Amino acid sequence: MNRRLARIGAIALTIAIAPALAHAQTPLTLQGAVAYALSHDPTVAAKYAAVTAQAHAVAVQEGQTFPTVSAMAQSILQKQEHYGGAYQLIGIAPQANFSQNTVSIGISNYSLNSGGLGFLQLASANASLAAAREDLARSEDLVAANVTNAFYSVAQKKGIVALDASDLGYQDALLSAARIKAREGATAGVDVLRARVAQAKSASTLVAARADVQNAYEQLAHTIGAPLDTAFAVPAAIPEPALPKGAIDVLENIATAERPDVISARKTLLAARETRKGWDRELFPSLQIQASLGNQYSPTESALFQAFSKTPIPRGSPGFWQIGVTTTFTLPLVDYGQRHTERVNDDAQIAADERALANVVSQAQLDVRQQYRAAQTALAQLAYAKEEARLGLEAARIAQLQYRNGVIALADVIQAQQTSVQAQTDLVDARVAYVEAVVALRVAVGTYSPESAVADL
Q1: What is the pLDDT of residues 418-431, one digit of tens each?
Q2: DSSP per-residue string spanning 321-358
Q3: Taking Cα atoms as reference points, which of 448, 246, 250, 244 lies closest to residue 365?
Q4: What are 276-299's pLDDT values in tens digits?
Q5: Which of 55, 192, 308, 403 has its CA 20 to 30 A from that of 347?
Q6: Kind and range of the H or E element at 421?
Q7: Which one-letter DSSP state was computed for residue 244?
Q8: Residue 362: φ, ψ to 5°
């Protein structure tokens, strides 16, 4: 919960500095892109406004549920001449000059409703606040996932460009070897034609790959709500973050304690249970309480007493305190089944919220297990992809040497190179898939904010 509250404050700060970010010259990293997207996404802004509105509603309800302590300072100064006042009829005339000073601290008209109705309403307000925070967190996580996918889509396509450039170099070397062999009469001239076809195809693929990179950059800028020519600091090497530490049951326990959707479901159930307790509210009285303490001193009265007293009147006042309680007890005699149907409804709501909480907890555990398994699978596939790429590169290198020495045909070399390029492409895809799986697992656990989930990427 503290993490989500800190994130809400961070969003407000990000919104404040967003105009500066929009014109920043420094290329945006993944962390900067996520922060920028969070500050510009209209859905997140609307969800954040809903959270602040509900937080205000909770504060208002707390002010109505708990006694409000206030301080008061009052100074009265009155002057009149030839004014009879309200008591002139009985021969009492007001003083020409009057002054009085009062300071106090107290509780004014605090109502403790029967059965603690205010506490029930506060529990309901807190449940609504938790639901609003869960809605905001879900929107933020979705933004972070989309930005991460778009960011590493650029890295993926840049890696493909590097592979295609390397493949074009390989085809250039192969064409050169085919021409040499053709001049020497070691092979037929058709090998040169085939090598030129393979070279042209590689060149065409490289052109398309470079266009894909530019498209991916612009799509990333559009995803975060930035100008399309925004610069990004996309790393050449895709990182390989470590899996979250801890056994799967530990991660499940963390998720069921920290995920906003679980917290929201628990608070909703708590509000339903508190509402059920309020069914007995007619059995309790309502209390109207007021209390204060302070000091009140009238210089006018002191001067008047001193005029009729032979001994000095001490200045100042010993202070005062007062407390009052009004108790009201009401019991409905004929309510046409209102209390009975209320109890039936409250019990049904508790049962529904208990099932909803169980379902949310089960979903959290399922998410953690599946995302953890997906991350482990992606890590294993990454290891296989590395080995596949290494072997493919070596096979293509050996095939080129064999062709130069007349051991194998050109078609075999081209096939070996195609296999190698595909293996290296699979490696790039596996790196990106692993990063995305780790981010998804972090989000599923619930202890990461959108910024911290990508902090080391």
Answers
A1: 888 899 889 988 98
A2: EEEEEEEE----S--TTHHHHHHHHHHHHHHHHHHHHH
A3: 250
A4: 777 776 667 777 778 888 888 777
A5: 55
A6: helix 410-445
A7: P
A8: -60, -40
Contact 149, 438 (CB under 8 A): no
CA 1 to chain centre: 10
* Tens of pLDDT, residues 96-150: 777 888 888 887 767 766 556 677 778 888 888 888 888 888 888 888 888 888 8
In percent, how much of the chain has pLDDT > 90? Answer: 10
Q: Is the pLDDT of residue 384 over 90?
A: yes
Query: Which residues pair with residue 327 across a beta bridge?
Result: 287
Instruction: Identify the CATH number of the domain defined by range 2-66+113-285+329-453.
Output: 1.20.1600.10
Mean pLDDT of 300-328: 72
Q: 3-state class of 429 per DSSP?
A: helix
- The radius of gyration of the chain's CA atoms, rounded to the nearest angstrom, is 38
Query: Left (φ > 0), alpha (ψ -120 to 50) or beta: where does 109 sit?
Result: left
DSSP string, 61-108: HHHHHSPPEEEEEEEEEEE-SS---TTGGGT----SEEEEEEEEEEEE
CA gap 102, 116 in Å, rounded: 34
Query: Token pair for residue 87?
Result: 């008591």
